[in-house]
Amino acid sequence: MAYRETERGKARKEKTRQQILQATAELVDASGFRLVQMAQIAERAGIAAGTLYRYFASKEALFADYFRRATEQEVRQVAAALQEPGQSSERVEAGLRVFARRALLKPRTAWALIAEPVDPAVDEQRLRYRQRYARLFEQVISFGIDHGELPHQDARLTSTAMVGALAEALVGPLAEPPAQNETTIDHIIAFCLAGLTRKEYPQ
Question: Does residue 202 lie in a domain region?
């Protein structure tokens, strides 16, 4: 008779998986990817190292899963902001501001997700999610063009350039004191909106 996993067994495994991912998140929040070791994760999760490898075959696989889950939360926040009422440029601004504010709220984590050198599997996730962000902005920009709210342009190129500029512009400020955050965000958004609307960049 073939073994069939019980619901209790499934729940226990899922609980352990969540403990591992939570431990990973806490360690990455504190020091980024580079310094985190599997033994540290196992200890913080309260499990044996051998148990950890039953859930994730390698650190690269674990980090890729953590990256996907962490970034999916950020994507949902940006997507919700882009659905706010208003003109297309206002919705784009709302999405940019949510992205930037959340990044600067947890700078160590944001650095890990946006720019820290990582293994190929994690870098693949990073590229995939940059494309996700760009598609979300592209939809709003396309709507704005179609309804005469924005000047004609290549919505895909604009959105891709905007997401790239936003991510790269945040890399340095992630290390700045919190008091500088809102001014930094305002400058980044002004730059992006100047390109989007083709208006003069404010002095």
Answer: no
